């Protein structure tokens, strides 16, 4: 969350940042709560001081034999105590209300973030890999058709087992997902990342710490209860991204200056209820409820976060460079920045199988495979993430950053569409071949069951 001191000293900057992000929140109400809370705290401090002075005189008055004055002092002390108790109870109520209200205030965008209303005003910073494109079939088969033809993706059986938005990867399709995960992890180890294998269920406190809650409750999968039920800090949720458990590893802890930067990477399955858009967006594995991803999480000194952000973008895009997949880098405008981010770049890979209105001139479409974000101290304040610059100095909030390295299913889409051949097979990018038993080509498998026979595909 943003700091209360910053809110008090720069209310108009906060108001402008909220408006630029398009977030609907009553900032005046938050300011009123803070002002009332500070007023009560000040009155409480005054009463406490006054009561201490009165109490200190009671013994002296009794010693001097001034019983009547001593009794008056006792009664006044009791009155002050009662008044102080009422003020403190009200201050505690306001503190809880103020904390809840602050949770709904978004991060303020950095000054250099382009101002815009929505994704149409994002700014393309550069493209990579389009100068030397491989020869593609005259008509590129979309991944969802190709995956079923090769029997490496099974959507019907995924829906049968778990519902819409789930799928089976099978045979070489499953091998491809495993290969990508291992390849991503290996690349990021080279970049100095330490592996973390996180728990899959996370508690509500952790979701709040990274900013998923309270704003995005409806997108989460709750374990054992309905999303609309009252939420407790210890309730469990299936993680939407490994950012949540890895960032909260050090919640309410103080790291040492020598520890920083901390660079963790974590593979996990991820679970989100988001339904996506109708049409092509919901076909195949572009937008699903469960997907694999490798997440990079950084903890850094505040003065180093801007430089680390740029390096994190390079670390995330490295896997696409090695795979030879064309992609672009987008800077998010304020209206598409997200609730928690101060600055964010998206990395979008090119998938040539489906023509979209906003795709490149070569046809096809862009698929976001990584969002690289600088949260500055926003998450750190929510999760109590601090570091001590020197042993004798006070602890300070550190900065957190993260980026996907990268979302696996959409890279599978790009590989199936960009590396497909005229005969319906798919070339395996060279860096992945060692992770796929030396396979150079995905040739697919034979379908099983009476449905395959009925379709005339088996004799």
UniProtKB/TrEMBL annotation:
GO biological process: selenocysteine biosynthetic process; seryl-tRNA aminoacylation
Pathway stated in the Swiss-Prot or TrEMBL entry: Aminoacyl-tRNA biosynthesis; selenocysteinyl-tRNA(Sec) biosynthesis; L-seryl-tRNA(Sec) from L-serine and tRNA(Sec): step 1/1
Enzyme Commission number(s) from the entry: 6.1.1.11
GO molecular function, one term: ATP binding
Annotated localization: Cytoplasm
PROSITE patterns hit by this protein: AA_TRNA_LIGASE_II
Residues covered by region (Disordered): 50-79
Record keyword Ribonucleoprotein present: no
Key words, A-Z: Aminoacyl-tRNA synthetase, ATP-binding, Cytoplasm, Ligase, Nucleotide-binding, Protein biosynthesis
Domain Aminoacyl-transfer RNA synthetases class-II family profile: 142-429
Catalysed reactions listed for this entry: tRNA(Sec) + L-serine + ATP = L-seryl-tRNA(Sec) + AMP + diphosphate + H(+); tRNA(Ser) + L-serine + ATP = L-seryl-tRNA(Ser) + AMP + diphosphate + H(+)
Residue sites binding L-serine per the record: 241-243, 272, 295, 402, 404
InterPro entries per record: aa-tRNA-synt_IIb, aa-tRNA-synth_II, aa-tRNA-synth_II/BPL/LPL, Ser-tRNA-ligase_type_1, Ser-tRNA-synth_1_N, SerRS_1_N_sf, SerRS_core, tRNA-bd_arm
Gene Ontology CC terms, in alphabetical order: cytoplasm
Enzyme class at the top of the EC tree: ligase
Binding positions for ATP per the UniProt entry: 272-274, 288-291, 368-371
Written domain comment of the UniProt record: Consists of two distinct domains, a catalytic core and a N-terminal extension that is involved in tRNA binding.
Function text: Catalyzes the attachment of serine to tRNA(Ser). Is also able to aminoacylate tRNA(Sec) with serine, to form the misacylated tRNA L-seryl-tRNA(Sec), which will be further converted into selenocysteinyl-tRNA(Sec).
Family the entry assigns: Belongs to the class-II aminoacyl-tRNA synthetase family. Type-1 seryl-tRNA synthetase subfamily.
Assembly, per entry: Homodimer. The tRNA molecule binds across the dimer.
Protein name according to UniProt: Serine--tRNA ligase
Organism in which the protein naturally occurs: Halobaculum roseum
Gene name per UniProt: serS
């Amino acid at each position: 969350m943003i700091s209360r001191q910053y809110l008090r000293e720069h209310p108009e900057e906060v108001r402008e940042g909220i408006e630029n992000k398009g977030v609907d929140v009553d900032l005046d109400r938050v300011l009123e709560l803070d002002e009332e809370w500070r007023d009560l705290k000040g009155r409480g401090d005054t009463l406490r001081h006054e009561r201490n002075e009165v109490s200190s005189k009671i013994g002296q008055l009794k010693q001097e034999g001034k019983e009547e004055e001593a009794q008056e002092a006792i009664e006044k002390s009791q009155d002050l105590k009662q008044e102080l108790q009422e003020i403190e109870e009200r201050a505690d109520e306001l503190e809880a209300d103020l904390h809840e209200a602050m949770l709904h205030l978004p991060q303020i965008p950095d000054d250099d973030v382009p101002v815009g209303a929505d994704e149409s005003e994002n700014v393309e910073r550069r493209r990579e890999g389009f100068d030397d494109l491989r020869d593609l079939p005259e008509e590129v088969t979309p991944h969802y058709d190709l995956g079923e033809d090769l029997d490496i993706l099974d959507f019907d059986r995924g829906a049968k087992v778990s519902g819409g938005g789930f799928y089976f990867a099978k045979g070489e399709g499953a091998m491809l997902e495993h290969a990508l995960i291992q390849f991503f992890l290996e690349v990021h180890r080279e970049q100095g990342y330490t592996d973390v294998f996180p728990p899959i269920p996370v508690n509500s406190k952790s979701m709040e710490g990274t900013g998923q809650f309270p704003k995005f409750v409806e997108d989460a999968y709750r374990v054992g209860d309905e999303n609309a039920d009252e939420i407790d800090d210890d309730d469990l949720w299936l993680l939407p991204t490994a950012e949540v458990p890895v960032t909260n590893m050090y919640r309410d802890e103080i790291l040492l200056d020598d520890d920083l930067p901390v660079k963790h990477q974590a593979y996990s399955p991820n679970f989100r209820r988001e339904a996506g858009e109708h049409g092509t967006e919901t076909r195949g594995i572009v937008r699903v409820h469960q997907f694999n991803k490798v997440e990079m999480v950084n903890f850094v000194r505040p003065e180093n976060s801007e430089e680390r952000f740029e390096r994190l973008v390079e670390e995330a895009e490295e896997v696409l460079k090695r795979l030879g997949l064309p992609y672009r880098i987008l800077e998010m405008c304020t209206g598409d920045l997200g609730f928690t981010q101060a600055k964010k770049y998206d990395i979008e890979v090119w998938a040539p199988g489906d023509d979209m209105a906003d795709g490149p001139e070569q046809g096809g479409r862009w698929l976001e495979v990584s969002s690289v974000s600088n949260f500055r101290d926003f998450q750190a304040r929510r999760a109590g993430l601090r570091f001590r610059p020197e042993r004798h100095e006070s602890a300070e909030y550190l900065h957190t950053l993260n980026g996907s390295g990268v979302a696996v299913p959409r890279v599978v889409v790009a590989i199936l569409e960009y590396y497909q051949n005229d005969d319906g097979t798919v070339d395996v990018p060279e860096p992945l071949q060692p992770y796929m038993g030396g396979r150079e080509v995905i040739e697919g498998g034979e379908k099983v069951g009476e449905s395959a026979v009925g379709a005339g595909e088996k004799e």
